[in-house]
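Q: Given only this backbone (342 positions), what sequence would you predict?
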């Protein structure tokens, strides 16, 4: 069960910052994942009125990201369309709590989403029957995985979705990559158990110059460097650091396991048609194929994986599709429909 510092804290913060009955577009909030403090930004419609009730969307960031990057961009755009949208930093990352730092823990990432839903249900201006989730890249895989066991989530949207376990298992494409990594993790755990330094590795080369010096030619890696490690998308809380021992739990994770049986909510998948090595086009199609619920797939022409992070000509196409999807599936039902649904 997720806990809160004070479940009324965020409400008080929002209300205290209202001017003339309207809140600013975005407010920092805090909620709990068990004993951990999770930091979020709550994006509010421009005409926000706390006496009204709104549909809400939980926005889940990629691996190596923070709430101020692409998840925050999508949250802001959904708020412009009338939604309350919550973007947050994963536990152990960004401004959220948790030690050791820089862990990428699938179980915690999924629980963060459940706890974000818990938090939204404490807000009087959120309609708890109209909560959706929107995930980008690895956040898309985590969003799907959370929705399978969190049926308070009424609709699921994913953009450039990645099954992070599949991506880590395949790694550089060489057979045995996963086993080799697990052996390295074991060696690192032994080092740390004996008092050695924590193993911290970069998610991607730390700069375009580092990528060039390393002979990197893979387009997705180079675009990741361009997004995360240049003024295009960099943020001081996105440190490009990964606690290496957490790779073991990532390798064993399958974001889409049991999706045929447990994902009953409507699903919107969005991918770009410029196919890269990270596999979001492939994972998006696999997810779409395997899901048995009401579903839709949009292929954005000309877009690559990272174009759908922040290139507005592509992001706006995705947001338009997501708006139609969430408007349909998080709509207010009339009393007769409510009665029939009981």
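A: Predicted residues:
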């Amino acid at each position: 069960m997720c806990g809160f510092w004070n479940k009324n804290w965020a409400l008080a913060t929002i209300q205290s910052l209202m001017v003339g009955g309207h809140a600013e577009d975005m407010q920092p909030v805090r909620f709990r994942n068990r004993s951990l403090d999770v930091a979020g930004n709550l994006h509010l419609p421009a005409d926000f009125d706390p006496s009204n009730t709104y549909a809400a969307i939980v926005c889940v960031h990629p691996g190596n990201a923070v709430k101020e990057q692409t998840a925050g961009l999508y949250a802001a755009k959904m708020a412009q369309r009338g939604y309350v949208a919550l973007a947050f930093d994963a536990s152990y990352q960004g401004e959220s709590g948790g030690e050791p730092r820089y862990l990428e823990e699938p179980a915690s990432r999924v629980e963060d989403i459940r706890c974000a839903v818990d938090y939204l249900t404490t807000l009087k201006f959120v309609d708890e029957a109209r909560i959706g989730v929107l995930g980008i890249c690895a956040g898309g895989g985590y969003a799907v995985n959370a929705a399978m066991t969190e049926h308070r989530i009424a609709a699921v949207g994913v953009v450039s979705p990645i099954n992070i376990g599949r991506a880590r298992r395949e790694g550089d494409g060489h057979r045995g990559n996963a086993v080799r990594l697990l052996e390295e993790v074991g060696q690192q755990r032994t080092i740390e158990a004996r008092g050695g330094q924590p193993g911290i590795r970069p998610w991607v080369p730390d700069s375009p110059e580092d990528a060039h010096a390393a002979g990197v030619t893979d387009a997705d890696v180079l675009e990741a460097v361009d997004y995360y490690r240049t003024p295009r998308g960099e943020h001081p809380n996105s440190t490009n650091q990964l606690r290496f021992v957490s790779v073991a739990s990532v390798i064993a994770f399958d974001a889409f396991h049991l999706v045929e049986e447990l994902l009953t909510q409507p699903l919107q998948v969005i991918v770009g048609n410029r196919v890269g090595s990270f596999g979001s086009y492939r994972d998006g199609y696999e997810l779409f194929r395997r899901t048995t619920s009401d579903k839709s797939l949009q292929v954005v022409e000309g877009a690559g994986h990272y174009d759908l992070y922040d290139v507005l000509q592509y992001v706006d196409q995705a947001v338009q599709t997501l708006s139609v999807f969430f408007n349909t599936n998080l709509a207010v039902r009339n009393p007769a429909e409510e009665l029939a649904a009981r």
